Every structure is written in structure tokens, then in C-alpha cells.
Amino acid sequence: MPDVRELCGSVLCRALEWLSRRRLPQTCGTITLAGLEAPVEVIRDRWGVPHIYAANEHDLMFAQGFVHAQDRLWQMEYSRRLVAGRLAEVLGREALPVDRWLRTLGMRRLAEVETARLDGEVRATLEAYAAGVNACIGRGRLPIEFLLLRYRPEPWSVADSVAWGKMMAWTLSANWEMELIRARLVDRLGPEREAELEPCYPTRCPYIIPPGIDGSSLGRSAEERARRARPFTGPTATEGLGSNNWAIAGSRTASGAPILANDMHLVLTAPAIWYENHLAGGGFEVTGVTFPGVPGVVAGHNGHVAWGFTNGFPDVQDLYIERLRPSADGRVQYEYRGEWLDAQVIREEIRVRGGEPTVEEVVITRHGPIINGLSPHLAGEQPLALRWTALEPEEVISAVYRMCRARNCQEFREALRHWGSPAQNTVYADTEGNIAYTLAGRIPIRTRGDGRLPVPGWTGEYEWSGYIPFDELPHLWNPAQGYIVTANNRVVGDDYPHFLGTDYATGDRAERIRELIEAQPKVDVGYVQAMQFDQLSPSARLMAARLGELQVDDPELAPVVEMMRQWGGHLAADSAAASVYQVFVRRMIHLLVAGRLGELAEHYEGKGPTPVLAEASLFGCRAWEWLEQVWANPQSPWFDLGHGETRDEVARRALREAVDWLKAELGPDPAGWAWGRLHRLTCAHLLGRVTPLDRLFNRGPYPVGGDGNTIWATGVAGADLQGQTLVGPPFRFIADLADLPHALGLLAPGQSGHVGSPHYDDQMQAWFGKGYHPMLWARAEVEREAEARLQLKPR
User: Fold this and answer.
1) pLDDT on residue 30
2) Containing structural domain, residue 382
């Protein structure tokens, strides 16, 4: 007898999928719209990518807004409500903690300020785009998410587009929570022992810019760090997100022209955070990926220049310990250089669906908003203000506008002068044969301190004196080695003259990319495709060799040690050795730190103590590097767990525990310990958190290989080994500058945000199967691959 709830759930999902198909946007025929100046043609190819042809730039941006809204209106709506702190209005009280965070940060408030400062050209672009979105909303054919939540979207505004860039900057910033965790570690261990937990950058891993630039040490004394940490103990965390990009000079390629590759790692969701688009009109032509809700193209090519990004992880956030008091007349004041100044207080009313509104009182000092009240995990004895570059006015959209128009690498670099946040490793190449790199963005110059720990805000000693001048930011131009690689690895050596930061991802992916480039005399596009799907981890290769040398008497462990001895570090989905490696490293780190760190151990191992906006911290990466380095010193006191244990004794215990855990989870036979049974991907939709809607909206779970240290990146977004929210590349991009019209792309799970569309998930199989599609450029090829043609005509 079938379960009634299961049956009802299946019927509901089928009905909703049918309804979604009925609500798919019109993609053929003619639509007449007010706001256009001339006819526009939108040709969608067989991957659902819209190619927009317009007579002028205004109509081009209008049409882009229209097609974004046609395919991704619910995603756009969710994104703007998220950044504005307005989710509780439609999702109820469960979303209130997120709204409180975003209202306190004030990204939407700042977006209004930036909108008022926009120059004429950029403002016109954003206004045309918003008009196109609103033309689509006005047609009334809304995605089923609006039906399920029973409301209609408000008109789109220019500030909605501006605000989304702030949210991406937050997603890619990870400094402030590292400061808090580090402060608690210093408080518990003392400065010297805490310093032992901070590994040096591995000597085997490359810098983006090889040492040789004038610079100063990035380090500071442990005593200074300890003094500054003691006033506060209370951690938070966020996800550490990454990416890969590289450019290879024509001297190293089969075509004789540069090849550029990029895959940006973000949480893999349904729909993807990116949307592919080709825009042509008014002397403007560009193709690549866009953010639904923002005009232009973020990464791709324009027929002259190809470009891509990775997160640079510079330290652009500082926490200031403030002294607050109420004044006699009820105002909030903070101390600064011996004076008591009035704080700015903003009362944010948050409407809650099905409940009474709540008021969030936001207190802002000269350093930024006070964040303590947002989570019990942030409770501390003294208030903390967050200073962050993205909370100051900037003009990132202006940079994107100019990047799309650049005719060569020199012009592209000039466009990057306008880039603010998030600070990004930008690699670019042009048809003139140049390859280049710039760390683009605003990075503060600190008058004192290194940003590693919270600092006193009342003394005035730890202020920012400005930003690193653009011409002094790290930059490469046609390097002699013939290639540029960035993969969230450390940017510069200690001799660079400015402080950038200390919290980077591991250098494994950069090491492997460099290794593969050096191994091939002449690289072609096919070779680069294989590189993007590579699943070898240099860290895993090293640890496998070390485990292969471990002496064991246990007859059950002996074949496991032999398995590791023969394993080369490839984290394939069907690899049992990959599972052993992943579980062993986690157990080994835990054994070494748990007794000394207590409740802080899970945070050092990567768990984020504040789950509101994030689940993990970069300390998880640091812990794996630390194990690699401490292993090399068998006499390290960290191996003594209290009874004089040696390194190998602890390793045998960790391996025993790993094997026992794998047997319990996956069965007694090691042949069944495939990594993909533990490491699984679900591309989740916001409404897919609700049963039975998960069956309708989510895609997966899929067994996957790789991890956060392989070029094929599939890092767990939280600290749970079996978590199905993974960070990886929704979009892969390869461009041979000798043949830009045939650049390759791949967007998973698909182009459309409508679950009833065949393009909702039609690229998922290719994402696993090393497939790409051509990013069609020439009009004749677009015509040949056309799936739908839509004429937009002015009313």
C-alpha cells in the first residue's frame, strides 16, 4: 500500500511542474513593449542562451533586463530581498535572523547612496535595464514561486541592481570571523601556542606573483596579537569560497595565441547564480556570464579581450572594540580619542509575514555598525563595530561597464581602476597576444596592526589611512614564465611593500595547475578542458605517501596502508582511498587539537559558529595545511595527547578510527568505500528546503569526486563531511584568443530558473561528463543553432 503522504507529494509536484510549463515565458513571436526605441531581436540557442541584437545600447540593456526577468525573476526577487533584509515579509519569522544581519550591515541603504552618485552613462544603463525588468513583471506571467508564496513582486529599481554587488562582496569576504576565532584561540592557548596553529604558506605552492617585489614582512609578534585579542572572545564564521583562472601565453600554446580559462567557485544551486548572455548592439558586443539583476557581463569576452576572476582574499574588514554609553538625553555615544561622540542610530522596521513587525536598532560608529546583538555567538563583553570596504561608496558597476567595452588589455586594466569590492584576482588576455593580472579592488592601508584580531576603536591608533594606490596593487604583464595562475593562493611574498592579508586558501589548486602547464610543451583547448576536470590533490598525494610509510601490526589496517601506498591522490568519485584520506585527515586533526582547544576545536577544524549567513571558516583550510607541516616534525609536542604519544602512534589511532567509521557508514568491505558515496551534491532551490517541494525544485544528490583542493573543485560548504551543499564551479569558461568566436562555456544545472523548462537542468550531465557548449558569437552560427526567436517592438 503506497504511503499517502508520498502519493500526495508526488501528485503535488507533478501538478506544479505542469503549471510551471504553462507559465514559461514567451520566447517566440512578437511582444510590443513601451520603453523601447527600436525593434530588438532575441534568439535563444539550443542551450537556452539568449543572444540579444539591438540597434542601440539603451534597447540592449532594456532587453537584457527583460530576458533576465523572463528566465530568472524569482531568483532576482529573492536576491534583492536578501540584500535588503526583507525576506521575513514573504517567508515569515524563520527568515528574521538573516534580515536583522542585512539591515545592520546596511547594504541596501548604501546602494541608495551609490545610486545617487552614478554618472550619466552608467545610470542610463541601469535605468534601461530596470525598465526592461519592469516590462516583464508588468506582463503578469509570474514563476510558480510567486504563486506558492502568494504575492506579486514590486517594480525593479536601479538601487536593486547596485545592492546585489554588495551581497557578492559579503559572500567573498572572510576576514572578520577569522579575527574572532583567532582571538578566542589566543585567549585559550596564549600567543605562542596559537601561533603554532597558523601554518606558513607551503613552500611547494606558488605565489601568484613570484617573490622579488620590494615589500615588508606580513608577520607581527605573537605578543602584540595577544594584547589586542584579550578584550574580546566570541567567534563567527563564513564560507571560504574560491575559484581558478589561468592565462597561457601564445609561446606555450598550440595556436600561438593566449588561452584563458576560468571557473569561479560558488555554492552550487538550482538555478545557478550565473546566467549566460550574449549582447550585441550600439557598438557594444560581449558574451559571458551575468548576475540576474545586474546589467552587462561579469566574466567572458568581447571579441578583443577575455577575462575571469578568482577571489583574492585580501583583508578588507576590521573589527573595532568600541566603548559605548547612553547620554543624559538618551543618545548613544562612543568614545574616540578621549571624546564622546554621538553614534548614528537607525531604527529599521522589519515586517514579518504572519506576525507583528520588529524593530532593529542599528548603532553605527565612525568604524561601522555594531554587530554584537545579531547572534548569541557574537556575545562579548564589549561592542564590536565592523569596518569593511564595501560599506563605503564605490563604483563596481561602472567598472563592469568599462570592462565590457575594453579593446585590449591596457584599456581593460584602466577599467579595473573603478573596481571596489570584492577585491578580485583578475586575469585577462587580448587578441594582440598579451596576458595580464591585476589584484583589483580597494585594500586598506592600516596605520597600525595587521587586521588579524579585533583592535581598540577608542584610541584612534588603528585607523585606515586610505587604500593601496591602484598602480601599487599586485600586477603582472606578459610574465617571462609564459603563464599566470591564480587559485585563491597567496598573492605575493613578504617583500611586497603593502600588507594584503594572511588568510588565503591552500595553494594546492595553483600548484596542480602550474604542474600541468609545465608538463605540456604546447597547450591546446582540449588539454585545458582536461585540466578543468582534474581531480588530483597535491595534498592528498603527499599524505598518501606518508600513510604508505606507516608501520602497522593491525591486520585490518595493513591493506588500507597498502591502498594508500598505491594511491596517487586522485579523488575520483569511485575511489576508496579518497574516502580513507578524507576521513583520516579529519580524525588526525581532531585528535591533535581537541584536548587543547576544547569547544574551539570544531571551529579550528572549519565549522562556522554563526549559521545565519555562513557555515564554515577558512580555518578549516589552515588546519589541513597545519597538519601537513606538523607531520614533518615527528618530535612536535602536538603529538603528545597526554601520555607521551608519538606521531605514528597518533596516526595509527586516527587510521583505526577512520576505518571503523567507514565500516559503520559504508560497510565492512573497503571496495565499497567509494568517495562519491560520502561526497554528494544537491543543487538546492530555496523552496526545495520544504518537503515535498525538494523533489520538484532540487537536483541531486549526485555522487561527485574532487574536494576543495582539486582543480575540479567540490568543497563542502560547511564542516560536515557528508554535507550536500558544495562549493564548485557553476560555470566553466575557456577562450583561445586565436578563435574567440568559438570560446567554450558550461553552466550547471542550466540556464532557466523555471522548473518546468527543459533548460532548468539540461547542462547537468555535461557538467559531470566533461562537456562544454560553444559560446556562439557569429550571427550565422547563432541562426543555425536557434531554438526560439522573439521580436521585441516599441509600442
Assistant:
1) 99
2) 1-192+201-224+272-510+770-795
